[in-house]
Amino acid sequence: MNVFRILGDLSHLLAILILLAKMWRSKSCAGISGKSQVLFALVFSTRYLDLFFVFISLYNLVMKVIYLLCSYITIYMIYGKLRKTYDRENDTFRLEFLLIPVIGLSFLENYDFIPTELLWTFSIYLEAVAILPQLFMISNTGEAETITTHYLFFLGLYRALYLANWIWRYHTEKFYDQIAIISGVVQTIFYCDFFYLYITKVLKGKKLSLP
Amino acid sequence: EDEKTIKDEL
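Predict the joint structure of the above. Result:
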């Protein structure tokens, strides 16, 4: 495990906790795409099925359980406890436009045609695009709360750090996983435009609003 | 096989 990997995982965890803290403290999930959160729960649920079959390490197990739990608590907050504050009029991304291509691609490009492997592949492809409903929602409303932008920043930073991790692993272990790498590159690209706005606006104390 | 089915990354 290298420093990029650890920082990537911590960045991912921080993003998830920022989102939960925002909802908990403001008692509101305004500006958060429930659809993106459902996709992330689906990503974790299909990828971490190996919790039942293999033990990799205590770290691996604990992190997976935390991600899964937080993800389901987030969904409960949006569609349960805080549903009155959920901005469903602006959360209009059509999920079938993501799910159908992602299912198709996981059947076409995978390492092995067995259920666990197909579900893992599906989760990797889905993660790459799962943030799109959230970004679409921001472009619908034209703005995002600063705390939401911190969430997005750390969520994007996580996969960018994983790219550094994969480069490191390739050079030190000759290990590479082309499905994860290509999807990770695509995933990171989706955040680039946002990173630019975050650095030029949010870090200078301005609210993120689109022209 | 093993390298592909055991994924240590999150």
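Strands of chain A lie at 143-144, 208-209.
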